[in-house]
Specification:
The chain has 218 residues and is mainly alpha-helical. 56% of the residues lie in helices and 4% in strands. The chain binds 2-acetamido-2-deoxy-beta-D-glucopyranose. Keywords: Signal.
Length: 218
Amino acid sequence: MYSKIAALAALVAFAEARFGQEGLVQNQISALGNFGNPGQAATLAGASPGVLLGGANACAKLELADQIVAELGNDPEVIAAAAALVAAEKNFNNFAASIPTICSDPNLPATPELRGIVPLVDPGVVGSDIENANSASSLTNPFNADGLSQADVAIANGFSNFTAQASDGSTADVGAGGNAGGNAGGNAGDNAGNNGNNGNGNNVDNGNANNGNNGNVN
Ligand SMILES: *[C@@H]1O[C@H](CO)[C@@H](O)[C@H](O)[C@H]1NC(C)=O
């Protein structure tokens, strides 16, 4: 019995340590008091923990990030705080799911400076090493996000162990192995095709056929 309580206490401490990340984003937003009208930054900061909760829509934090820039302007300090929210880890309920959700709305975030940034995910999720490295680098070097949702950008850069969620709340399985292989194969095929068209090589047709097949098999 005692060991069960001790184990539970350790779990709670771990959860609280991870929950602290949300506080960091909140502090960064509330520090924007010099921008916008008095109280605006504090109100936006107060809304930030709610959009990172397990039950929140995965697109809600992107909407809030857009709202931060819409209300406080696009000073680099404001952009940095809004970008931190875009990159922040959204919790998921470990009892209900084992993988995170990422927004699949290609129109979010709308702010150009916030596009191409992918989110951190729980380090317990398979593939999180890739995704968390991508998230860190995307804050300084955003990925290509032309016409792509945050979910699309994550997949295009090697992480697909998540559930995609649209703004209306509907979800779709991304299907870790399958789609990643298919997309990677498809992209490789497209690139090879484009390269072939740019060059004057004799083997353009062979190249397309082979790459396409590889993509499908994967
Ligand atoms: C996704 O991550 C979960 C852990 O959260 C793991 O149980 C599962 O096997 C992973 N799925 C794939 C396809 O890697």
